[in-house]
Model the fold of this input.
Amino acid sequence: MRSNQPGGRGDIRNATINRDLTTVLAVLGAAVEWGACEANPARDYNRRFTRERRESIHPPSSADVKAVITRCPGLFARMIRFLAQTGCWQEDAGRRRSPA
Done:
């Protein structure tokens, strides 16, 4: 079992806790609706204590993008140029299909 308590592995992130709380909230909400219980105690949990901390995204400079493009072969250079101009993620660019 994972735990953020002393002696635990400490690998549970706030995002995981929030996802689990959302699931518990939904299940208990359904139980209240079906009459299986009277209240949903998950609603009382203060999520302020499990805010997700995200690192800022720092896109590469235009000079860095140009430097990479000059070192890449044709198709990769085109893909990098496309990503830089559109802001798409690499996975999205790889799935892009040409019009039929």
In short: The CA atoms of residues 63 and 92 lie 23 Å apart.
